[in-house]
């Protein structure tokens, strides 16, 4: 029979190992996001979308290239479709500007469950507020508002 101190030490060591395994997410999980949440941060999705949008060889609104964008939620696609159908917009609804800025910066997201907000600053000194929702375990842009 082991002395009481040895049993306490073994119990402590075992509990520590279990807690460590739980905090790491188990074998092979690395730094994966919790189940149901996207792996790619919301601000990265926004930055990637604007990189695509600003480098598009043409007008992604007029040519309706946004319709097949992996970055947009269905609600955002419908909203842009309505704007295209109306045909009367003075500012690009994605850039909130008449011209393409030299740079944009997507600031860190503020997330709450399956919704996130990202403020985007442009080289014009203006900002936009981008709202994202989780669709099929991926952040998708659901709304863009001028001003931050």
Main attributes?
alpha+beta; 148 residues; globular; Nuclear Transport Factor 2, Chain: A
Topology (SSEs and partners):
Blueprint: H1 4-24, H2 42-55, H3 74-86, E1 104-106, E2 110-112, E3 115-122, E4 127-135, E5 138-146
Structure write-up:
- With 148 residues, the chain is α+β, with helices and mostly antiparallel strands.
- Helix content is 32%, strand content 22%.
- It has three helices and five strands, in the order αααβββββ.
- Strands 1, 2, 3, 4 and 5 form a five-stranded antiparallel sheet that branches.
- The longest helix has 21 residues, at 4-24.
- The N and C termini lie far apart (68 Å).
- Mean pLDDT is 81; it is low at 4-33.
Name the shape in a single word: globular
The largest sheet, given as strand count, sense and whether it forms a barrel, is:
5 strands, antiparallel
The number of helical elements comes to: 3
Overall pLDDT level: 81
Strand content: 15-25%
Helix content: 25-40%
Name of the CATH architecture: Roll
Low-confidence stretches: 4-33
SSE succession: HHHEEEEE
CATH topology: Nuclear Transport Factor 2, Chain: A
Give the total of beta strands: 5
The top-level CATH class is: Alpha Beta
User: Structural class per helix/strand content?
Assistant: alpha+beta
């Amino acid at each position: 029979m082991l002395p009481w101190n040895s049993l306490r030490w073994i119990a402590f060591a075992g509990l520590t190992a279990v807690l460590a395994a739980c905090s790491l997410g188990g074998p092979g999980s690395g730094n994966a996001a919790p189940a149901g949440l996207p792996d790619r941060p919301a601000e990265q999705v926004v930055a990637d979308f604007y990189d695509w949008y600003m480098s598009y060889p043409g007008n992604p609104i007029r040519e309706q290239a946004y319709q097949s964008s992996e970055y947009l939620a269905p609600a955002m696609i419908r909203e842009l479709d309505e704007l295209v159908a109306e045909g009367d917009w003075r500012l690009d609804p994605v850039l909130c500007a008449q011209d393409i800025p030299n740079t944009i910066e997507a600031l860190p997201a503020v997330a709450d469950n399956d919704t996130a907000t990202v403020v985007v600053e442009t080289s014009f000194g203006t900002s936009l507020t981008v709202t994202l929702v989780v669709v099929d375990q991926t952040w998708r842009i659901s709304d863009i508002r001028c001003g931050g």
